Amino acid sequence: MIVVLFGLLFLLIGFGFTIWSAMGISGVIYILLRGDVSLRIVVSQMVGGVDSTTLVAIPFFIFVGNLMNHSGITRKLADFADFFVGRFRGGLAYVSIVVSVIMAGVSGSAVADASSVSAVLHPIMRKRGYDDTFSASINASSAVIGPIFPPSIPMIFIGVITGLSIGRLFLGGVVPGLLMAAFLWVVSAVQSGRKKYPRIEAQFNFKRFFAVLKDTALAVLAPAFVLAGVIFGFVTLVEVAALAILYVLFLSLLVYRTLSLRKLFTVFVETAVFSSSIMIIFAVVGLYQYIVASEQLGRQLLFLVESLHMGKNLFLLFSLIFFLLMGCVLDAVPVMLIFFPVLLPIALNLGIDPTHFGVIVVLNLMIGLLTPPIGALLFIQTKIANLPFNTLVRAIWPFTLALIGVLILVTYVPALILWIPNLVFGVGG
Predict the structure, then answer these.
(1) pTM for this structure?
(2) What is the rounded CA–CA span in Å between residue 347 and residue 315?
(3) 199, part of any domain
(4) Tens of pLDDT along 324-341?
(5) Domain range spanning residue 382?
């Protein structure tokens, strides 16, 4: 029956149904075919899927990202980064990476970061002589840092459905996020040198430095504000997200005065629409999790792993391939919410740290945002850069391979993920 469930899911997606509708319809059909369960279970499980106070933090973080974009704070962050790294050959590629790291410390969403950073940087990159394929590639791939570097919306997903420490998951993403930035920096340097992109000849000017610092210092402090709340535990996750909104609103309305009431209304609408698209997936995943549990999929996979005599390293390799393939054909959110709770007990049984496993699964699925045919970040960049989809797919592979290199590295060197969480919370804390 579980094969029928997923067969129907892929069939409906193939016919053009949205992810949530395909999951909902296939789940209801499964219940009808079983015949021994009341349809009322559908409603109760869907309500249970969104019954978590922690989920309230997600629209808050999305709201912060949208606020920064509409109030012009993203552009100020780009100017800040451009002052330090824009003078190098291909400097705007490095600006994209630096701004993505800073934005990641606030919004936690790859889609939000890609939309805001690309909207600011792509026209500037085109004006300075960068070709559209390179600009779109670096802007899309650097946006993947968003869901890895804390705070991370996908890490919240995992914490909610499994009970794992969200603080440990957040801090587990720090080193991988910085490694992603470093690997993308290297690829950008190689391509910029090969294509001889312009170098901005500018002397370091203290007057301009202090002017830039004065204009952007408060904006740059926003990620530090969020991280401090998470690390030191002064407030809950939802509270730190709400405080981040108040902080960015203070900057937008009173300090920079760049946010009008019309723009603020637009931010509310965009946040509501995007948050609803996430929450409805959580609802239908609640139904799927009930079905997966009743079919004992976890037990079946455990028997499979034991029958194949998989050790820790082989299971990690199996997980990497599985989630990479699933990320190519399905949206990351349902894949994460359905399969991570199923595979986590197997990982624990093999002695794999749950924080380590959670971070690599998130990184795995976020790389899927750069792979066809789903590739949400690819579609965003094709619209912004006005590029054919296939052209961008061919151009982005060096950056995607760099991120896969980071994935393999942190998978088989767990200390890269666990060092900071263990330092802050203690081993296994």
Answers:
(1) 0.84
(2) 8
(3) yes
(4) 888 777 777 788 888 888
(5) 38-425
